[in-house]
Amino acid sequence: MLSHAEVLSALLRRRPGYSLPRAFYVDPGVYAADLEQIFFKDWIFACASAELPKSGAYITLEIGEAPVIVVRGADGQIRAFHNSCRHRGSRICSAAKGSAPKLVCPYHQWTYELDGRLLYARDMGADFDPSAFPLKPVHCRSAAGLVFISLAEVAPPFDAFAHMAARYVGPHGLENTKVAHQSTIVEKANWKLVLENNRECYHCSGSHPSLCRTFPDNPRLVGSSASDSAPEGRMHIEKCEAAGLPSAYVIDPAEQWRFVRIPFLGKAVSYTMDGKAAVSKRIGKIPMEDAGTCLFFHYPNTWNHFLADQALLFRVLPISPMETQVTTTWLVHQDAREGEDYDLNRLTEVWLHTNDEDRRIVEENQRGILSPAYEPGPYSELQESGVVQFVDWYAQSLQRGLTGGTRLAV
Ligand code: 3BY
Ligand code: FES
Ligand code: FE
């Protein structure tokens, strides 16, 4: 297990433009540094606000070993708390999601309001002051219906991102959607292999027959940068912007997040086997069926697709150095009726296949990296510039964290 100093030294010695040395994908010391410097500090995508439709609706997630509960209060506000009772520390909610009028600890029934205040604790004596034992809050912000949390003492800035999310995602009206389906899988691979795989389509033609019916695997379209985009991408952006939909490639100055709207192949309008819409009711205020897909990532743990008829949200959470949980959520208009406005199988089949294909790919990637023969290999400049961008962001973030805040050039 590498020490922090050894992780830093390995970072400084890495070869840019090449995959990372083995330790970054397998070592518990690197994993601990990833959690401490990235997952415990940054904004982490938790859920859609549509997953918490009413007061008392909650979801739980674990960031490393930190269990968190995200819950909608009686006042409609979404808040996040450490999912650890102020009595003797028991987890309060164990289900992945649910609904409860109060948060009741299963151990000795200490009972909390949805805003975290301790309401009731039996037989604690006359001088017991419940107000001294509220649930510990976790920073929680929503942007265009996407809920992010941060375990940092002082949360990083959020406003610039929220502003851009309002422009690009706002028109998709996520607040007026509902969950049509959610799938959670565990991939036996380091979380960075899951992200790296997502940031390229070099593998798409060889692995994703269903996705490739509608999704262009042209690297100049997939939105790695603004400058070298393909003509059909530029035309699509012009058409959508003229219709009032922000679509041009935009990336955070720190390169943590990016938005861009790209077209589907040919006449396709959605991720279905025949390319036709999966849901007859469009979401939000999308003015046309062929708006393509708005691609959004926010490191370290989410990428998303916003279409005219659905939104697809992906949440990545590390479980251990070589295990990662991936949750996919399909959102459709809240008034869309299953069986009438959409068929669940048609809506989900392409990405259920694609996720399983990606799981196999990254698991094989992990197995091969465990080989004593593994050494970092070169990324394709044309096909894998998105991977280079992610790995550089990761290296800078980790380096900054390990050196106490100084951002060093990669
Ligand atoms: O999931 C993504 O965002 C991209 C598009 C399809 C596969 N992957 C490269
Ligand atoms: Fe929660 Fe005792 S640990 S009530
Ligand atoms: Fe893939």
From TrEMBL:
Superkingdom of source: Bacteria
Domain Rieske: 44-149
Keywords in alphabetical order: 2Fe-2S, Iron, Iron-sulfur, Metal-binding, Oxidoreductase
Stretch forming the signal peptide: none
CDD domains documented for this protein: RHO_alpha_C_GbcA-like (cd08884), Rieske_RO_Alpha_N (cd03469)
Gene3D superfamilies per UniProt: Naphthalene 1,2-dioxygenase Alpha Subunit, Chain A, domain 1, Rieske [2Fe-2S] iron-sulphur domain
Listed GO MF terms: 2 iron, 2 sulfur cluster binding; iron ion binding; oxidoreductase activity
PROSITE patterns associated with the record: RIESKE
Keyword Oxidoreductase: yes
Cofactor: Fe cation
TM stretches of this protein: none
Entry-linked PANTHER family: CHOLINE MONOOXYGENASE, CHLOROPLASTIC
Protein name: (2Fe-2S)-binding protein
Source organism of this protein record: Roseibium aquae
